[in-house]
Amino acid sequence: MGSRALDTLRLEKAFGRSGDDLTPADTPWEAGLDSCVCLDKRGFIGRAALLRLRPEGPRRRLLTLTTDADACVLYGGEAVLDGKTAVGSVRSGGYGYTVGRNVALAYLPAELARPGTRLVIEAFGEDVPAEVHVGPVHDPEGTRMRS
Description:
Blueprint: H1 2-12, H2 28-31, H3 47-53, E1 60-67, E2 79-82, E3 85-96, E4 101-109, E5 118-123, E6 126-133, H4 143-146
Antiparallel strand pairs: 1-4, 1-6, 2-3, 2-5, 3-4, 5-6
């Protein structure tokens, strides 16, 4: 049971999970992990490819989405829509007990990476309104805990 609690906490912190949110097809630039890449280090597989991709910037980004607390819980695989156009899919999701909302991670076009962007997640045949967040949705400075 403890692993499920940690899973919801990692979603609130926008921490991607290997295999779901972070795959070999995703670049560190897209996943927001550029601080974890040392391009000065020689000899790692993919270095040349990352150097080629860096100047153009990511075309898509791993973003956090939230829905209302009353919406269905998201599990992953749900389509993310901008109007009627599919722009991505939920990689992982769950209920965020700290924030009292459903939280999901999805790769979306970079131009949608603006806080407050309104999208729709198609979940169980329902169109669920969602809001884009860039970064974590929980209080990273811990000010909520001190007040």
